[in-house]
Amino acid sequence: MSRYRRWNELLELLAAAGQLQVEDAAKALDVSAATIRRDFDELASQQMLTRIRGGAVAQGVTYDLPLRYKTERRPSEKQRIAAVAAGLVRPGQVAGLNGGTTTTEVARALATRSDLNSVPPPAVTIVTNALNIATELAVRQHIKIVTTGGVARPQSYELTGPLATGVLEQVTLDVAILGVDAIDAVAGATAHHEGEASINRLMARQASRVVIVADSSKVGRRAFARICTAREIDVLVTDKGIATEDAAQLEEAGVDVVIA
User: Fold this and answer.
1) CA distance 63 to 32
2) Separation CA 136–CA 116 (nearest Å)
3) Which of 14, 30, 43, 69 is 20 to 30 A distant from 112 in Cα terms?
4) Looking at per-residue confidence, does 17 or 67 come out higher?
């Protein structure tokens, strides 16, 4: 198990329990107590948790983990989801991408689509508020990149605020492909951070078609801030782990559920 994956699992255990003892964490992750102590000390130095005698307690930030930790979650599922979502973008279209690990994989899938390399540039235009996506795609000559302004959030590399809003209000999108923190048939698509939700909501509003990309662990859940209702979502691309009941409720709400 890699260090980042171990840290991710520790933070998820803390988020669920609120407090974690060294011995319990070592048993859960099948590593030594000394390894857990070092992990706790390192995560505490990054202000990801608070050390206490014999263990650690959660801080609010553990519910909105930085992108570098999220990359260890369900990587194969995200790559399959991304490949399907990227296939929904037709040559010549304008696509919006927000930040996140799954949308980053969508960007990579678009960059390597063979059919897009064989059409006159720009094969597609990508509008994004994600710094890492813009950086990765900037070297792809067949893809036109438009980035918003805004204030960067270190958790997701997303730009938020009035400067991001100002750009998005001036563009129209054929499709918005959005990563979310949670989605269900009642609350719709939601995010932990209200600033990110606001920008994502505007991106969805500017698009003719809204595609949500989310692995099954996010389906049937709710986060703090709404991005859009289920009836405003055209397609959800997820993995086969989605519960039958959740899929049925989303389909009833008008969402086309696609299993990658």
Assistant:
1) 25
2) 16
3) 69
4) 17
